[in-house]
Amino acid sequence: MLRRIFLFYYEGFRKMTWGRNLWAIILIKLFIMFVVLRLFFFPDLLKRDFNSDEERADHVLEQLTNP
After folding, report:
1. pLDDT(45) > 80
2. pLDDT tens across 10-44, in order?
3. d(CA 38, CA 24)
4. Which H, E and C letters describe 22-42, residue by residue?
5. How many CA atoms lie within 13 A of 8 on its CB side?
6. Three-state SS for 42?
7. What is the C-alpha to C-alpha distance for residues 43 and 33, in angstroms, rounded to an integer?
8. For range 43-63, the mean pLDDT
């Protein structure tokens, strides 16, 4: 069963013509979204402002429970 599923996708990806280019575009977009944007626009504030996991957890809990 798993072998048939694997072969289905394997043959599908092998015979793609336009799909390879589209997958390349998708992977480049994912790379930009998760690596470049995170690196420059979403710094890890909890890691910067707190020293331990317990302090981070307390801060998150406090922010979630207080309106």
Report:
1. yes
2. 888 888 888 888 889 999 999 998 888 888 888 88
3. 20
4. HHHHHHHHHHHHHHHHHHHHC
5. 5
6. coil
7. 14
8. 91
Q: Give the pLDDT band (50/70/90) at residue 60.
A: very high
Question: Taking the CA of residue 3 as centre, how many other CA atoms within 13 Å lie in the half-sphere pointing to its CB?
Answer: 0
Distance, CA of 64 to CA of 46 (rounded, Å) = 14
Q: Is the pLDDT of residue 59 over 80?
A: yes
**Which residue from 67, 63, 26 is spatially nearest to 45, judged by alpha carbons?**
63
Q: Residue 7, class by beta-carbon neighbours within 10 Å (0-12 exposed, 13-18 middle, 19+ buried)?
A: exposed
Quote the DSSP letter at residue 15.
T
Q: Terminus-to-terminus CA distance in the chain, angstroms? A: 51
Query: Which two tokens mark 21?
Result: 């280019």
